Amino acid sequence: MAKYNPENIKTIGVYASGGDAPGMNAAIRAVVRTAILRKLRVVGITQGYTGMLEKQFADMDLRSVANIIQRGGSILKAGRCPEFIKTENRKIAVDNLRSEGIDALVCIGGDGSFTAANLLWQEHKIPVVGVPGTIDNDIFGTDHTIGFDTAVNTALDAIDRIRDTAASHDRLFIIEVMGRDSGFIAVASGLAGGAEDIFIPEHPFQIDKTVDLIKRGMARGKNSSILVAAEGVKPGRAYDLAESIRKNSGHLATVCILGHIQRGGRPSAFDRLIASRMGSNAVDQLLSGNCDIMVGTKGDNLVHVELSECLKQKKHVNKDLIQLAQILSN
Ligand code: F6P
Known about the structure:
alpha/beta, 2 domains, binds 6-O-phosphono-beta-D-fructofuranose
């Protein structure tokens, strides 16, 4: 774990970056309030790394984060910043941070955001602590990321509703959930939603097996089926899957793409709890002289993992849960 002298820290900057996730506001609130109670000045950076390049800085006080714990999205906005890949742009951002008097940062985001945060420490010795905020849950070193629980519940609510229609019309549905590179949302919402099969980017599937599963189900008297696919499933997306099923079985599948509705909405209690704990702890880590780390969860506890470790390693989906969904949907 990287160390620095925390006595030099008078002002911290906080930002959300990457795709927004429900619970980011609860994390911002926790960072701001903990830092102010510890006698620090807090600067909110709007729009993540873009805000650093464009000097979108504003002082925050206890009231700036009032009445936001229950709100989805991010009051500091979020977003990706491809310009940050360039070394010279990172230097501009650091100059801007320094001229604003920002000594250290709390970064709320996913792996792209952590890559940039890690570089700010490695190249410029700006102390940064990461708080994992992404609905995808695909960050190594933490059991949960902020937003995942809410997104799964949003997807599940949609699956339950579609199931009503599937049953009333004897239809087969493929529901596409988010997850470009990872299948955590698909596996969790698929198993909890009683899906017959789940398709994820990390796990090659055989369409014949799925078709067989559907046929056997029908032979046992099943009239409707739900399949859940992550958006990153290969080859192709939900529409290609539907086409393969039609070609291989003659059955028509109706596709429903849930898309960005999974990113919005009131954060669940679970997301607010972990966001509050992680955000507050991130400030305390900075004040203890620890940086270049992420605050994550392991079971009920908070853990600290080096950012380089989070970025190097891949978090694996429990593929046995796909098999369990197949068995339980009998
Ligand atoms: O990383 C979160 C996520 O919602 C992914 O699941 C999805 O693939 C991606 O963001 C969508 O990003 P954008 O909103 O930029 O299209």
